[in-house]
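U., I forgot to send this yesterday:
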Amino acid sequence: MVFAIQDKTLELAEELAKRTGMSLDGVVTHALRAELERTKPLPPRLSREEMLAAVAEIQARVRALPILDPRTPEDMLYDEDGLPK
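Result:
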């Protein structure tokens, strides 16, 4: 299988091959393996139903939290004249 490689990508791979004494194939393989080891796999995508269930669970947890300040958001933000506190 042959892939088209950007000029800059090829230039970087050739420079790394020259510095390490590896082949171009070896440089690319080594770099890809190193990046795969460094990164975590993405979590599997949730279906619409799973996503809605997850959101509903979060909403239920938030609803169960205690109310620490019974004032309305407006009362917290504005004074009796409607100006920001």
